[in-house]
């Protein structure tokens, strides 16, 4: 009589967590976020709110530099009438006026439909003319006091 012994291996239980699927999901999400992140910040429409601020009290009439939607400049010197002016003449006249009147307030104004870049370019032009402090001018909102 022959007896055969069969040896069956017992499997040990694994007490480990398989993290490979989690890594795969993480990499897919990383790729999705990397692709979509630049597309989310292409442009932002900004509609600035109306201001509740009170008017600035000043002893001297301000100098107002206005830029319209077409990029044309208008200069109003201390209570005078606005006159159309080009950029080089604006810079020359403004620097001469501010040199004589050092503490006169200078405001930059623009209608609501004007591009923000034109307003910023105007502020840079005014500061380049030697004006130490430039303020933005706004219309009071409906709930101003």
Automatic annotation (TrEMBL):
InterPro entries on file: ExbD (IPR003400), Tol-Pal_TolR (IPR014168)
Subunit details: The Tol-Pal system is composed of five core proteins: the inner membrane proteins TolA, TolQ and TolR, the periplasmic protein TolB and the outer membrane protein Pal. They form a network linking the inner and outer membranes and the peptidoglycan layer.
Keywords attached to this entry: Cell cycle, Cell division, Cell inner membrane, Cell membrane, Membrane, Transmembrane, Transmembrane helix
Subcellular location: Cell inner membrane; Cell membrane
Transmembrane residue ranges: 19-40
Gene Ontology molecular function terms on file: transmembrane transporter activity
Keyword Cell membrane assigned: yes
Record family assignment: Belongs to the ExbD/TolR family.
Gene3D superfamilies noted in UniProt: 3.30.420.270
GO biological process, one term: protein transport
Organism the protein comes from: Pseudoxanthomonas suwonensis
Topology of this chain in the membrane: Single-pass membrane protein
GO CC annotations, alphabetized: plasma membrane
Predominant location: membrane
Entry keyword Cell cycle: yes
HAMAP family in alphabetical order: TolR (MF_02203)
Known role: Part of the Tol-Pal system, which plays a role in outer membrane invagination during cell division and is important for maintaining outer membrane integrity.
Pfam families for the chain: ExbD
Record protein name field: Tol-Pal system protein TolR
């Amino acid at each position: 009589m022959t007896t055969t012994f069969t040896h069956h291996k017992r499997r040990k239980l694994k007490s480990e967590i398989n993290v490979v699927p989690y890594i795969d999901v993480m990499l897919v999400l990383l790729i999705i976020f990397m692709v979509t992140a630049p597309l989310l910040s292409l442009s932002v429409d900004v509609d600035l709110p109306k201001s509740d601020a009170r008017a600035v009290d000043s002893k001297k009439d301000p100098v107002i530099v206005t830029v319209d939607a077409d990029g044309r400049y208008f200069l109003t010197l201390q209570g005078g009438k606005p006159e159309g002016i080009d950029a080089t003449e604006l810079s020359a006249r403004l620097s001469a006026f501010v040199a004589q009147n050092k503490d006169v307030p200078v405001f930059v104004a623009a209608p609501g439909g004007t591009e923000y870049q034109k307003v910023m370019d105007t502020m840079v032009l005014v500061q380049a003319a030697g004006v130490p402090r430039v303020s933005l001018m706004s219309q009071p909102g409906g709930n101003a006091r």
